[in-house]
Specification:
- With about 450 residues, the protein is α+β, with helices and mostly antiparallel strands.
- Helix content is about 30%, strand content about 30%.
- It contains 13 helices and 24 strands.
- Strand 13 and strand 14 form a beta hairpin.
- The protein binds adenosine-5'-triphosphate (ATP).
- The site of adenosine-5'-triphosphate (ATP) has 16 residues, from strand 11, strand 14, strand 17 and helix 9.
């Protein structure tokens, strides 16, 4: 396996994403709308898979975590109490020469636009998108697009507690869109103004918060490793005191080695009782927990693993990309984990001859309820294998002329390119077995 040079890698991923239908520039026919992206037929499959893998690990496999889907459109009261109206800011500077604007903490050196070093003093710029709900555009109608999903879990805390009778430690998880008016979006879908988050608020007795913080650091790191990111490209990094958000006493990030260096995939914060306490004060509604066993009433502390779905999809793509040689021919391959691949199985009749089609379609219909499948008859079989390697399809099943006689077909593995003959009757079981124990992905 070759090591693709990192600056090239970014360009290759962006090109592949467009060419094969993972990610398109939004509003491209109108010249594009900066920093917004559309997820194409393959991208939407993969992004759903990322979110599904997160939901499975955070909600489905845990009895103490429940889900929520809260509104995106939110009243100012929430953001007043959470501190976002006052504090959810980035330091903004203007270049005095070309009047471009930059995020001061991301600038190290002259203006990237004109090279000047003459900047204004940094001033706080609030990242929330403000709009008006209803037909009157006055102050009373102000609403915000949520800049994080987390506040939904705090605002609905009492409702969830009442409805589920959970007791700490327990969690509320949410996946959905968030919006931030980023000063300098960029690096493809790494930083955009509209993006998707996967967040969980884990409510614990105050004295146990350090223990649970450590627990979630390890759990979340392991999630990325299990889905195929090599450990050489992952690290945990604790925030220094000057980096902490206004609500946090301790935060560590899971970082990935992006082509431009280490950068954040996920933040795991100890939010203490900050949010529940402030919402209780502001709303007048009690947001605490009464422990009947001890007779004690307390405001739980919160550990929050906050990940980006769109950002981690990009990391999974970068980590999976490879160029190698098969049978003396160069190929591009995405070594995606089968749970993340846009298609898990491609059904390929060996030739365009009509006699193969009924059986190939029968196989497709048999697999579709169990796996995400594509079907392709165009071009030579070798070309088709390459096309499916390039989009990370773990298995191609090929129906050939022998299949008509023996009701067997060939299963080809993307990573090893090995082919084995499998009876059609045993195909689902064979693929299920492979999906359950994916081969170790090639490591760099
Ligand atoms: P940064 O300091 O890079 O602006 P942050 O530390 O404020 O980000 P969090 O508030 O911790 O980010 O958000 C949790 C996760 O949501 C991030 O780790 C990231 O994966 C994702 N995320 C945040 N902002 C964006 C964005 N503008 N575009 C894409 N994903 C984002």
């Amino acid at each position: 396996m070759t090591d693709v040079p990192q600056p090239d890698l970014m360009e290759k991923i962006v090109n592949l994403c467009k060419r094969r239908g993972f990610v398109f520039q939004s509003a491209e026919i109108y010249g594009g709308f900066r920093s917004t992206y559309d997820y194409g037929p393959l991208g939407v499959n993969m992004l759903r898979n990322v979110k599904q893998a997160w939901w499975r690990s955070m909600v489905q496999l845990r009895e103490e975590v429940v889900g929520l889907d809260a509104a995106i459109l939110t009243p100012p009261a929430i953001w007043e109490a959470s501190g976002h109206l006052a504090n959810f800011t980035d330091p903004l500077v203007d270049c005095r020469n070309c009047h471009s604007r930059w995020r001061a903490d991301h600038l190290d050196g002259p203006c990237p636009n004109c090279g000047s070093i003459d900047f204004t003093e940094a001033r706080p710029f609030n990242l929330m998108f403000k709009t008006h709900a209803g037909p009157v555009e006055d102050e009373g109608a102000v609403a915000y697009l949520r800049p994080e999903t987390a506040q939904g879990m705090f605002v609905d805390f009492a409702n969830v507690l009442q409805a589920t009778r959970k007791r700490p430690p327990f969690g509320i998880a949410q996946v959905g869109k968030s919006f931030r008016n980023e000063i300098t979006p960029g690096n493809f879908v790494f930083r955009t103004r509209e993006f998707e988050q996967m967040e969980m608020e884990y409510f614990v007795p105050p004295d146990d918060s350090a223990k649970w913080h450590e627990y979630w650091l390890q759990e979340r790191y392991r999630w990325y490793v299990e889905l195929g990111i090599p450990e050489s490209k992952l690290r945990l990094r604790a925030h220094g005191p000057d980096e902490l958000s206004h609500y946090s006493t301790a935060t560590s990030d899971v970082e990935f080695l992006f082509p431009w260096g280490w950068d954040e995939l996920e933040g795991i914060a100890n939010r203490t009782d900050f949010d529940l306490r402030h919402h209780a004060e502001a709303s007048g509604v009690r947001l605490d927990y009464f422990d009947q066993a001890t007779g004690e009433r307390y405001v739980p502390h919160v550990i929050e693993p906050a990940a980006g779905a769109t950002r981690s999809m990009m990391a999974f793509l970068l980590a999976a990309y490879d160029e190698d040689e098969v049978g003396g021919e160069a190929r591009t391959v995405l070594h995606l984990h089968p749970d993340l691949a846009p298609y898990q199985v491609a059904v390929l009749p060996l030739s365009k001859k009509d006699v193969l089609e009924p059986l190939a379609r029968e196989v497709l219909a048999m697999l579709q309820p169990h796996f995400t499948c594509d079907y392709d008859v165009t071009q030579s079989i070798g070309r088709r294998y390459r096309r499916f390697d390039e989009i990370g399809t773990p298995w191609c099943v090929t129906v050939d002329f022998d299949s008509l006689e023996d009701r067997s077909l060939t299963v080809r593995d993307r990573d090893s390119t090995e082919q084995v003959r499998v009876p059609i009757d045993g195909l689902i079981e064979e693929l299920r077995g492979r999906a359950a124990t994916p081969a170790r992905l090639p490591r760099r």
